[in-house]
Amino acid sequence: VKSTLISCRDLKKNFDKKNDEYPRLTLIVEGLPETFGIVDAITRVLSERGEVLDSASPKLADIRRNLRIAQDRLMSRLQKYVTDSKTSQMLQEPIITQRDGRYVIPLRAEFKGKIKSVIHDQSSSGATLFVEPLPIVEANNEIRELQLAQRDEEQRILAEVSSLVGEHATELKYGVENLAVLDLAFAKAKYADELHANEPVLHELKVAGSKLKVEKPSNLQPSNLPTLELIHARHPLIDSNQVVPIDVNPREGTRAIVITGPNTGGKTVSLKTVGLLVLMAQSGLHIPAQSGSQLPCFHSVYADIGDEQSIEQSLSTFSGHITNIIRILKEIDHRSLVIFDELGSGTDPQEGAAIARAILSHLLDTGAMTLVATHYPELKTFAHATDGVVNASLEFDIKTLRPTYKLTLGLPGRSNALAIAQRLGLSQKIIESAKAEINPLDLR
């Protein structure tokens, strides 16, 4: 409680002269509580280690002084048993120890009764008895009484301070909530600094037929069609020294982007980059993209990424994807962002392509913003011929047989399978034979 209130006091002091510099943060800081004398009260009563101080009350100081005197007196009397030549030889060890809060000495079992005493315990072997000599019973009683008095006085002092805290419980709880809001703001700022992130421009998606009046923040701009423009966007979880930035800036009116290209080319990472940046922006985070990047404020974000195959549920890869997609299609509207990785995969290519095309058509009808990664050439053709849909691809360096991870909009990708196979040394005769099998219309 004390350290929290000190933090509140320091924050208020730091923001005292910065109202104009940080108006929103200052507004939160104003919700932090005063100290109400609690800090001084706790400092007077408790040490930094949380122990009740002697100076907490005159009564406690008196009890503890008497306790120290009584303990010293008792220890000196017990020490005689340890050092005296007659009694020391009866002891297992020349030490003073405690049992049940009373000071005792370790008497060897064969000398039981030689020292008039009260037995409090014995060792597991039975060779040692822990005894309290009768002459010091009264001294032990006095110490015990003082210890109980000390406990009661400490509890009274702590209850008094706790009562003071309790009187201001509402203000303190409210203050802690405001501290958490500030902490989150600072954490966001620190994370943005580490990512070299920037504030995105957010656009509101209008709610069709809505009578709801919502107060719009100044940086929201109404728009019927989503404006999505990410400049040099970086996946936030990939090492900044290795990540390849992508540009996602489709022409105005685009509602779907179909990304094609080889495996391990970066299609999934591109999808995840867009999805994560949208969610980061809508969580109030700056995004790892160049200043001027624009995003719509989606009301919902849905994704089907990865292999959902489940032995336990007896679902194939295709069934797993479709089950997920069915659930998504029931919930989307024109304010949704939908991300599908390898749409229609895991089944017969012809049927898979037909289903993928039908799903994409349905998504266009709902008005949802859609990003799809696929291998199907039929979807490349569909994207080329359909308004509001744009092809995109990830470059592949044929010379090095490595992907460059650079996203290009407006150009469909190719699998590069024949080129890769040829560079790796597959017979030219087989390559030519494979080329002859490809439909010339698909190539065109």
Would you write up a description of this structure?
The chain has 444 residues and is of the alpha/beta class. It has 14 helices and 15 strands. The strands form four sheets. The protein has a six-stranded mixed beta sheet with strand order 11-12-13-9-14-15, with helices on both faces. Strand 3 and strand 4 (128-133) form a beta hairpin. The longest helix is centred in the middle third of the chain and has 31 residues, at 137-167.
Give the tally of β-strands. 15
Overall 3D form = elongated
Biggest β-sheet, characterized?
6 strands, mixed
- Category by helix and strand content: alpha/beta
Gyration radius (Cα, Å) is 38 Å
- In DSSP terms (H or I, runs of 4 or more residues), the helix count works out at 14
Strand content: 15-25%
Q: Overall mean pLDDT score?
A: 86
Q: Main sheet: which strands, in order across?
A: 11-12-13-9-14-15
Extract low-pLDDT stretches.
208-223
Helix content: 40-55%
Order of helices and strands: HHHHHEEEEHHEEEEEHEEHEHEHEEHHH
CA distance, first residue to last residue: 73 Å
Ordered list of secondary-structure elements with their pairings:
Layout: H1 2-15, H2 23-29, H3 38-45, H4 58-83, H5 85-88, E1 97-99, E2 102-108, E3 117-122, E4 128-133, H6 137-167, H7 169-195, E5 201-205, E6 220-223, E7 230-233, E8 246-248, E9 256-260, H8 267-282, E10 294-297, E11 300-304, H9 317-329, E12 336-341, H10 349-366, E13 369-374, H11 377-385, E14 389-397, E15 402-409, H12 417-423, H13 428-437, H14 440-443
